[in-house]
Request: fold
Amino acid sequence: MADKAEAYDSSEIRVLEGLEPVRLRPGMYIGSTGYDGLHHLIKEIADNSIDEAIAGFANKIEITILKDGGVRIDDNGRGIPVDIHPKTGKSTLETVLTVLHAGGKFGDGGYKVSSGLHGVGSSVVNALSSQMIAEVYREGKTHHIEFDTGKPTTELIVSKNSPRESGTSITFYPDPTIFKETTTFDYSWVSNYARHQAYLTKGVLISVTDERTSAHESFYFEGGIKSYVKRLNNGKEVLSDDIFYVEKRIGDAEIEIALQYNDTFAEIMKPFANNVLTPDGGMHVVGFRTGLNRTINDYARKNGLLKEKEENLTGDDIKEGLTAVILVKLPDPQFEGQTKNKLGNPEVRGYVDKVMSEYFGYYLEENPTIAKKIVGKATLAARARKAARAARDNVIRKGAFDGLNLPSKLADCSSRNAVECELFIVEGNSAAGSAKEGRDSKIQAILPLRGKVLNTERARLDKMLANAELVSLIKGLGVGIGDQFNLDGLRYHKIVFMTDADVDGSHISTLLLTFFFRYMPEVIKAGHVYLAKPPLFGLIKGTGNSRKIDYIYDEQALEETLTKKIEERKAAGTKIDEDSERFKQAGYTAQQRFKGLGEMDAAQLWETTMNPENRTLVRVNIEDAEKADSIFSKLMGDQAELRKNFIQARAASVDLDDLDF
Reply:
């Protein structure tokens, strides 16, 4: 031990210089080096252009995915300064792109309001790029400089011929030695990012171009977050076409709020601080809810819509069917953590509360018809909440949520290690029988469904708890429901919908997805929900002990398989009877179509759909919660015309990928 201690001296201590820390630990700066981290590079550069727009110096931003794998982000703002920086002795442009924590976002810097806190964005992207090209247009001149993994490869080159008066253009190529999973940018991600930023920065044109496919979109919303609320409520029946909107400055903060009620039972809340989404809320959301709840209750009392002995409407009652976007802009936002999921500025709570209480109060007084609809909806929600509590208490008294009293039809697994346990939700008793017989009983549990479960898109909790199939499912999962939900109680880390490969099977899967999305979205977000992919066809060759089956999972694959086999036989000189059935031409003795899982015996079901070594499972993800919400509303809601239009538009090329889950 003494020898080792003596060897530990200054030579063992490594001092990282410049951008070395970024390349050594990229995850600390961009979260990951996978898909999310790759696209975060775009956000870091584009956010600087957005900051120019917020400050009122830019009104046009262009994001281009280049054919050669790079991305160019261009704005018509003031242009990054290019004069010599007094501390570094280098041009300010080079300083911003090579020095961590250098930027116009500190103290009395160039931005009163900014989405960036740490001043690391541009330099981090530079460090993680195999090449970066920066061009700044100022005072009739073009200033050009290039980098390789964060190190300058050219001097700052100044040209007197500038294509425009001002602006900044940054082109970068992600380093494949850092982004080993992928360096291919996803156009849909870029498009969604641009759309959201255009909603949040009204009056700014943001365009996206993909040179690989010639795809192009432009986003411009004069209405800003009002337009955003309108989009979020697309496909839903709103209580009124009018959208409440207020924009006020209090001190050095700007408060912007838009809201509208619809006739659903879910809330859509989008809180932002300096254009950064804060999904975990924060002080601006607390202030909004406090002001909203107080204002609605005060209005209801004042106008006799709540009786004297009735208790106040709760926050849960009032948020039912609410769609709201909150945008606060601050000179010094206090985000919690680098991920900026929550806003911590305590003063913002009072600011937003004051704005909501005053201006939403005016809105209700000036729009009594809308006000009565909002209060009426909240009152119905309060009655349903009490009914749901009674129903839940009744279910609890019967032991339905008692972990020791699992549903009688559940064939549970023997393992109690949730990480390895799988729950197969199976359509019908026949398929369930085969699944129980063929499963690995140590880790695989089977829960059969009888018929189609309740469509929970239009069902409150009290109605849902009256549905025996859903209560059995809730009971089996072990997570509870509503305010008793707890993801830690989940008994199976793989929940697999195993339904027939037909329209009815797809409908059942959609009903189950609706239930999980509306009542247990955390289970989906945690990656626990899967769709099984059973075969649709069996191509049989031989008989008896020599019998062999090739399993085919869709009609296109069937045709491709048969065509390939026929061509192989022709090439081998086999005479083909063109009048015989296709499967016989391909050399098979029989073709079987599995109309349902129940037509497979236990061995077949295990081999094709349940065996972890052979099966195909599709994990359900929520990549775009807004789009998912819109699709569920269209497909599972009351408006048949929206559903009809959606289906007609996709009938020729329907695919699970269209749903973006």
Remarks:
- The longest strand covers residues 129-138.
- The longest helix spans residues 368-397.
